[in-house]
Amino acid sequence: MSSADVAETPATERTPVRPDIQALRAIAVLAVFGYHLWPSGLPGGFSGVDVFFVISGFLITGKLLREAALTGAIKVGVFWARRIRRLLPGGLTVLAVSAVAVYLWVPPNLWPQFLREVAGATLYVQNWVLAADSVDYLAANNTASPVQHFWTLSAEEQFYVFTPLLLLGLLYLARRSGRRRRPVLLWGIVAITVASFGYSVWLTSISPPSAYFVTTTRAWEFGVGALVTFAPALRSIGRARLLAGIGLIGIVAAARFLSSAVPFPGAIAAWPVLATAAVIWAGPSVGRRWLAVAAFGPVQFIGDISYAIYLWHWPLIVIPPFVLDHALSNRDKVAIIGATFVLAALSTRYIENPIRYSRTRSGAERSPRFTAAWGAAGMAAVLAISVSGLVIAENRRVAAEQQTTQIVAQHPDCLGAMAIQNASQCAGTVPSGVLVPDPAEAGNDNWNLPECWTAVDAADLHVCSFGPAGATVRLMAIGDSHSNDLLVAYKAMAERNGWRIDVTGHNRCYWTAAVQKKATQAMVDGCEGWKRNLGAWLAARQAYDAILVTNQRNGFGVITTPGADVLTTTIDGLVRAWATQTARGTRIIAIRDNPAMGKDIVTCVVTHVADANTACSRAESTAVGTTDALVQATRRSDNARLIDLTDIYCPAETCLPIIGNVVVYSDKDHVTATWAATLVPILSDRISGALAGPG
């Protein structure tokens, strides 16, 4: 993840190129590249992004301030036109190539996500798209797209739009107040930088996934670079060398020792940010030795093409595994490095520079309107490519839904789980080539009701009900998204058996007396509040005949006390929660979680549709594991029973992605609604048996 090479050459900006900044670009882009290829070897390489942000803040703000000092104004249109000529030619080329590559090599189940991100990147709002997806439960397991790295370019472009307007506003304020321009500009930038830093620290503490991407948590990094333009020149070469040395060590150390396990950006981002600022500040005064190293030909070459390296490297990492049908080997990675440098050099030489430095016949720059029109046309062309694919994907989804409805209606007793139960009478009933849902649409095959579901950081209790209000058998189903997967089955069972089933679920939270670990404190508070509201609901009502419980295997990790292990604490939490109801005579019926498959199970099925049960299956011992807190809690709890459907998911001890012509999984550990619906007769019988057994 990196950023654009933002320096202008003397020919366009009449600003001397600083070899030390070009060297910083080279270090930053190599750090990012290395992190993406070998993350365990360079775990903090993502901090190269922060280096680029500081460089951008310094160079762009410095240019605008010099223009304001000379003319008393800023030509915003001219500035934006130069940004368009600098960024769009290379960026749109890579986006167009990436979109075409999606059509050619990426399985169609990934088209909606990938092409939506291409559109977001084209409009330079990719960082906000990824921020929204990062807190969207249904998008949390998204596959990395070939344009994911454009989030940094989106943040940069937003900085380019906002900064000249901010400076114009501060200049206006200085004129109106009669104050000197420089202090007003300085304190205005300080105020925004401090505010953004505070917001970054706060949002990172409560929602790291979204904090990583949004512009408001990154603005202070640009601001620090901007503030370096106000720093006085260092007159001591010794101090400059010391400052540059500390900064360079800090940048390299951040790339080596930072980790994605630490919430970022937040306060820890000050490490690479301040280190970069130190090198930039010291640069002009540091002396010949560092400048000679920085000016070394290969270093300058990498700095010159760093923007293009950043653009090309990520698609070349993401797309080949789809083509090769295997994870990247070290040999593949070396080839990617070579291809990236070749493409970066060629696109810089033949695409970026000719447009960047284009002139009219008189030698004057193209007008901002002309540049904007061509930029808009290029963006429209890339949007047309991505939107066309989205339309195709949507038409495919609608057709797949219709096909699924038709086939399910024709063969209700020989699809999915029923094909296992009725094996003797179902042989040859459903054509072997028919699959429901369409594998490419399996990720969208869900059945959700907002009235049954509470969001990840909310505490309110939502309860929906199925079946007759006066039913003699009253059940309640409680759990996380794995219980929500069975919602279609709960409804069908209630109607089939005349039961009353109340259902409540919470995103990433289940019924336990233990406190679950979460990514943010807001999620912890939401989960604990929901459980308190659930307890009040249960206490205020007549005891249920049984409560159905299920959740992700072993649930999200729980907070342990000193000396206690996670499994024991998880089991104890379940038993204590259930005891509040078993004491009233309510039976607990625990439905063991479905087996877990590989992360890319849907893509595997789409790619190997003819032999998916061979290529994408998983041994039961791996998919189910040897420890299961829900199973052990059932054994320890009074009046609790276990329903285990592993025999349906894993015939012959092999867990299959396709059973009875039905695609089982919508992602690595959630099942499709079509599959869940086929479980109804089997699940009904087993629940009835659990209800009828002795207390």
State the major sheet: 7 strands, mixed
Strand content: 5-15%
Shape: elongated
Percent in helix: 55-70%
Low-confidence stretches: 1-14
When the domains are counted, the total is 2
Please work out how many helical segments DSSP would assign. 31
Q: Any overview of this molecule?
A:
The protein folds into two domains: 10-392, no CATH class; 446-593 and 628-644, 3-Layer(aba) Sandwich (Rossmann fold), CATH 3.40.50. Helices cover 59% and strands 6% of the residues. Strands 1, 2, 3, 4, 5, 6 and 8 form a seven-stranded mixed sheet that branches. Strands 7-9 form a two-stranded antiparallel sheet. Strands 10-11 form a two-stranded antiparallel sheet. Helix 3 (48-71) crosses helix 10 (219-228) and helix 24 (566-582) crosses helix 28. The protein is elongated, with a radius of gyration of 29 Å. The two termini are 58 Å apart.
